[in-house]
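Reopening this one. Same input as before:
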Amino acid sequence: MKKSIQFVTVHGPESTGKTTLALALANTFTLPWIAEEARKHIVKGQTFTEKDILRLAQLQYEAEKKAILSKEGALILADTNLINYAVWLTWENFTVPSWLKKAISNQPYRYNLLLQVDVPWVNDGFRKISDQSLRRKWFMLYAQILDNYGLYYEVIDGDYTSRENMAISLLEKWWTLH
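Same output, byte for byte:
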């Protein structure tokens, strides 16, 4: 039986190691991966309007659709997905538009890893939320929105090595069952 396309996504507040973990998993399992589109289109210190966030969400959506069309029966790894934009819009007290809600519901988001905020915040010029209590609130918002969409997720915590080992083990178990 051929397996359908499924996304494995790494979620979490900024500076929790999403890209690092996504790349490690992609290399370990030899998987294609989708990068965070926003990183290609923002500049250091930029502030964002609702329109900006929605434009970035649309770019991410296009990247996801392109990945789906280019693979046949594959597991695709992503270091973010449209959930990130729903979280970001909610955090900023903007409305999550119906097109975005529908897109989230229709994407093959099957397995989600949610990174805890127990690693140090690193300033890379893009990140803005260093306060640990705010980072915890972001984490809880991710969990809430994943729950709202009925998406299964595992919480990943510990230092970077522990996170990678935990994620590899969980993904191996999940993939063999699906």
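So the earlier flakiness isn't reproducible anymore. For the record, The beta strands are 6-11, 33-34, 75-78, 109-115, 153-156.
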